Amino acid sequence: MQDLEEDYEELYEHHRIVVDKGQSQLRIDKFLMMKMQNASRVKIQEGIETGSVKVNDESVKASYKVKPLDVVTVSLAEPPRNTEIIPQNIPLDIVYEDDELLVVNKPSGMVVHPAHGNWDGTLVNALVYHFQNLPTHRNGEIRPGLVHRIDKDTSGLLVVAKTDQAMTHLAKQFYDHSIQRTYNALVWGEPKSEEGTIEGNIGRSLKDRKIMAVFPEGLLGKEAVTHYKILKKIRYVSLIQCNLETGRTHQIRVHLKFIGNTLFNDETYGGNKPLRGTLFSKYEQFVNNCFKLCPRQALHAKSLGFIHPKTNEFMHFDSELPIEIQNVIEKWEGYVNNE
Fold first, then answer.
1. Which of 49, 109, 126, 185 could form a disulfide with 90 if both were Cys (CB 3.0 to 4.6 A apart)?
2. Tens digits of per-residue pLDDT, 153-198?
3. Does residue 3 fall inside a structural domain?
4. Does 130 share its domain with 258?
């Protein structure tokens, strides 16, 4: 019989709000929307449903109406953290810089901004060391200069705003989907078409909240569109180019898994084992050697294009495919040629 204590998750109080004496009755979700400016209504409602939000130490429904002197608490799985970001002298690969912005080439393994489990060593820790007075995001989140992000184990180009004007201008381009972003991905197998478009809403998996999933009927999640074309076929794997029309969490990784071409060595989505090929032990050893050559998901944000916020000039930046992905491609080509 499973020990019930294994299912217990300690929660840490992050917010305690005593409702004002003059507060009129208001739904708890609307009340928290008003009090917690950085939290979305969806997040608040999720917190209410999971019991993270309590009134007078009791769980409530979203329809509960707060009353004067109610004590509302919000608890989360991770302990509270000081929001101060510690500057760290971490080298940056700066591709371009002017008074308004900079473009950096992020290595794989670097987290973009501090969060639970990664409070230092991030791109943001490096940015606040090298640059003064970077603007925060327009909704007040403490993410200096960041307009967008890429996953920890994805490498590639990011644009960083140095002024409020640049932040606003670039953020609008992302919102309007006018930013040009091209990724290179090594995937298992060959997509059915030489080029195509993957469409399917993306949201938190209903089975595992730590990963994302595609909801093709569009009833859940947010709209997501990825365009792709095959650059190189190497029998059991392919190098493809992906262009993002939208920017959802793990979008390329989830969409590629959805069409049956999981990202090479993507542990989260099952790409860290042979998904195509033979059953021979020699082949399995070859694949494991490739995993060692590229010990992370084979995804790289290769190019970035946008309108400069001050000059209105279109700017385009390109980067080399990282050596670890190049090495895997060369090794795979050699295997196929010698087979």
1. 126
2. 999 999 999 999 999 999 999 989 899 999 999 999 999 999 999 9
3. no
4. no
CATH of the domain at 221: 3.30.2350.10
198 shares its domain with 137: no
Report the alpha-carbon distance of residue 306 to residue 176 in Å, rounded.
Answer: 12
Alpha carbon 221 to chain centroid distance?
15
Tell me, yes or no, whether 216 and 324 share the same domain.
Answer: yes
- Burial of 24 (C-beta count, 10 Å sphere; 0-12/13-18/19+): exposed
Q: What positions carry a catalytic annotation? A: 151
Give the domain extent around 100: 94-175
How many structural domains are present in the chain?
3
- Which of the listed residues 175, 202, 235 is the one where a domain comes to its end? 175
Closest CA to 252 of 210, 195, 298: 298
Q: How far is CA 2 from CA 5, 7, 79, 207, 271, in A?
A: 9, 9, 27, 19, 30
Q: Which two tokens stand for residue 16?
A: 């305690």
Q: Is the pTM of this model over 0.70?
A: yes
Separation of alpha carbons 136 and 81, rounded Å: 18
Residue 84 counted as domain residue? no
The pLDDT tens digits of the residues spanning 193-240 come to 999 999 999 998 888 878 899 998 877 889 999 999 999 999 999 999
Identify any residues that bridge with 53 across adjacent strands, giving them in sequence order. 74
Domain-embedded: residue 161: yes
Q: How far apart are CA 71 and CA 291, in angstroms?
A: 52
Which residues lie closer than 8 Å to 82 by C-beta, 6 or more apart? none
Residue 5 has pLDDT above 50, yes or no: no
86 located within any domain: no
Same domain (yes/no): 227, 163: no
